[in-house]
Specification:
Shape: elongated
Amino acid sequence: MSKSEVVELPVLDAGAAVPCCPPIAAGELSQADAEKMAAMFKALSDPVRLRLFSKVTSYAGGEACVCDISDVGVSQPTVSHHLKKLREAGLLTSERRGTWVYYQVAPSVVAAMSAMLDLRT
């Protein structure tokens, strides 16, 4: 059972997200930009991580307690490992509240990934 409370999260301005990299059609990526984006896409290339990312993204309130994420076909320690990898890639942020860790999607990072894949120049 989770000990959750409603927390009002700030709403990001759509123009506030600054892509880390230019759109893929704008020109060749620099080595640094390619490495940064590859790490994010690599983190999402694992099916368990992609499911976890989806669960956190779609969870009510935009955040999920690690205690509420369990049905992805792996043990809880493995869930924690994959959440850590997503956090290290910059796709999730986390906050410890008592004994539980709550995860949120990093909207600016997801917006940057989306902008990079935009084929319109």
